[in-house]
Structure formats: C-alpha cells, structure tokens
Specification:
The protein contains four helices and two strands; from the N terminus they run ααββαα. The chain has 135 residues and is mainly alpha-helical. It comes from Batillaria attramentaria.
Length: 135
C-alpha cells in the first residue's frame, strides 16, 4: 500500500492494517506514529475527493450543486462541518492499556493524553502514574 511507505520505506505490506500491525510491533514505535486504519484512510480519501472533485471542480459555478458532505467524510456539529474520522472506536477507549502520556508534571490539563481520555496515568507514562491524576 502506497501510504505505508510514508511510515516505513522498507515495508512490504500490501494493506494499511497489516502495516499498522507490523509497525506497532517494532520496538520503540509509538502508537501515534503508525498509519491510520483502513477505515480512517477511507474517510480521509472521501474528504479529499469531495474537496477536490466537487468543491474545486465547481469553483467557477456561482451556485454549485454539491452532494451532502455527510456522505463524503464530514459530520455536522453545532452548525459546522467537521471531519468524520472513522466508524471505529478510539483506541484509547478499547485498548486503554496502550495509552501513555509524556507529562513530567501537571497531568490535569488538556495536554495530557490520559486526562483527555478520562483515564488515570499508569506506569507506562512519563509521570509513572505518580501524578495523583484521578478520574
């Protein structure tokens, strides 16, 4: 898969999910530094096609007839269109033991991955779980 080469030029994987598995099992690889799932890549491609093909393709038309963005990787939230990332649950909710923060102190801010996910810090975190973060 061409997108795998962005993450590992030596990859011989034929699909995104295989590349994710291969890269995740490499020592020292952070979960944030592996390719998106095939489902997330699909949503991204839909948004790119919508923007490039529909929006830009009709840029010279005063009142373009555009398809519903919700069919093209977007979702409406409070009157604005935002990217719809994936139909899969977040890893932080399904594999909580894989999440770790890099905070040295002050884990009670939105910068802390554990705090944002509503989880307690663990021994995997830089703070070693000693930050007294309670959820």
């Amino acid at each position: 898969c061409w997108s795998d080469l962005f993450y590992d030029r030596t990859s011989n994987c034929l699909d995104v999910n295989s590349a994710r598995k291969q890269l995740f099992t490499k020592v020292g690889r952070q979960i944030d530094n592996i390719p998106p799932t095939s489902e997330a890549l699909l949503q991204h491609c839909k948004r790119a096609v919508y923007q490039g093909g529909h929006i830009q393709g009709q840029a010279d038309i005063p009142a373009p007839d555009l398809p519903d963005p919700s069919d093209w990787g977007w979702q409406s939230a409070v009157g604005k269109w935002q990217p719809f990332w994936t139909v899969l649950p977040e890893a932080s909710h399904t594999c909580q033991e894989l999440l770790k923060c890099g905070c040295k102190k002050g884990c009670k801010s939105r910068r802390c991955k554990c705090y944002k996910a509503g989880l307690k810090c663990t021994a995997l975190c830089i703070c070693n779980g000693d930050c007294a973060l309670t959820v």
